[in-house]
Design a protein that fits this description.
Layout (H helix, E strand, L loop, with lengths): L1 H34 L3 H6 L3 H6 L2 H7 L11 E11 L2 E11 L1 H7 L6 H10 L5 E12 L6 E3 L2 H20 L1 E9 L7 E10 L5 E10 L2 E8 L8 E10 L14 E2 L4 E10 L3 H11 L8
Antiparallel strand pairs: 1-2, 2-3, 3-4, 5-6, 5-10, 6-9, 7-8, 7-11, 8-9
Helix pairs in contact: 7-8
């Protein structure tokens, strides 16, 4: 009888160990998809509750950060934190660049990726251990899913998006001159001045440009724009669909600057840390670390 009891306990232990291995593997696969920017397939691994709370496109937008560089990350392993009927909490251990230090060293106007590469080449890119990435594995086997609690996270990201949109709206642009050229069929050349009323540094700012109230094209600012900063210089506005050199009476035409309007519609926060802290304070939600 005692032998049979030991056998049953041994079998239960083996099954628990098998489930534990499966849970770690599911979490590892999920993180691998996030790290390889396969966020569509990562979303497919989520529970029905999470997918109902946040659409696929919104999930991808929430967990895309163009200022981070994954090249230097090293995964050290996966570890189970806790297990209960609701699921298994799993964390990933890894070594990542000390991004707080990188941000503090960055000269404004210099991209994060460029600074990180320079520090790495000189052997000065400080690495730190990180275990902030935690997910819950629900279910077993082929039916196992990842739970993130996205309904709660959506509140934080809504506030963050609102703060970002406010900062972007504070960037103003003015066309100083513009002329179409017959040999330039994709874009119009000219000069413009930009002025930022934002409190943060912005990069890859995209402007929608209209002329006499109609869509004209898009202009992207290549260089970072400092907080409260100004810039003026030559630009190239890529024509909107159906617009070209022949749209203004003749292939080569000087256009009146008074007819133009520029509106900033998107941008990248080059140091998002301050806005993230504000979003956390306003929403009362601690952001989920997936990056």
């Amino acid at each position: 009888m005692r032998m049979r009891a030991f056998a049953v306990l041994g079998l239960m232990g083996a099954l628990a160990g098998c489930n534990r291995t499966e849970d770690l593997s599911v979490a590892e696969t999920f993180f691998a998809r996030v790290d390889s920017a396969h966020l569509d397939s990562a979303w497919e691994m989520l529970t029905d509750e999470d997918r109902a709370a946040v659409p696929k496109a919104a999930f991808a937008a929430m967990y895309t950060d163009t200022t981070r560089v994954r090249t230097y990350d090293t995964v050290l392993g996966m570890q189970e934190i806790s297990r209960d009927p609701a699921g298994t909490k799993v964390k990933q251990m890894r070594k990542v660049p000390d991004w707080d230090l990188v941000y503090s060293l960055r000269m404004r106007g210099r991209p994060i990726a460029e600074l990180a590469a320079s520090l790495h080449e000189r052997g000065n890119l400080k690495m730190v251990k990180d275990s902030a990435r935690v997910v819950t594995v629900v279910g077993q086997g082929k039916s196992a899913k990842i739970s993130l609690g996205l309904a709660k996270q959506a509140k934080y990201h809504h506030v963050l998006d609102s703060l970002r949109a406010t900062q972007i709206s504070l960037v103003k642009g003015t066309i100083l001159s513009a002329a179409t050229q017959s040999n330039l069929t994709a874009f119009c050349v000219g000069r413009a001045s930009l002025e930022s009323g934002a409190d943060v540094e912005l990069g890859s700012i995209v402007f929608e440009v209209t002329y006499q109230g109609k869509p004209f094209g898009l202009y992207t600012v290549e260089k970072p724009l400092l907080p409260k900063g100004k810039w003026s210089g030559e630009i190239g506005v890529y024509y909107a669909e159906g617009v070209g050199p022949g749209s203004f009476g003749k292939p080569e035409a000087v256009l009146s600057p008074n007819g133009f309007e520029m509106k900033a519609v998107s941008a990248v926060l080059l140091d998002p840390s301050e806005l993230k802290l504000q979003a956390q304070r306003i929403s009362g939600v601690e952001p989920l670390e997936l990056l």
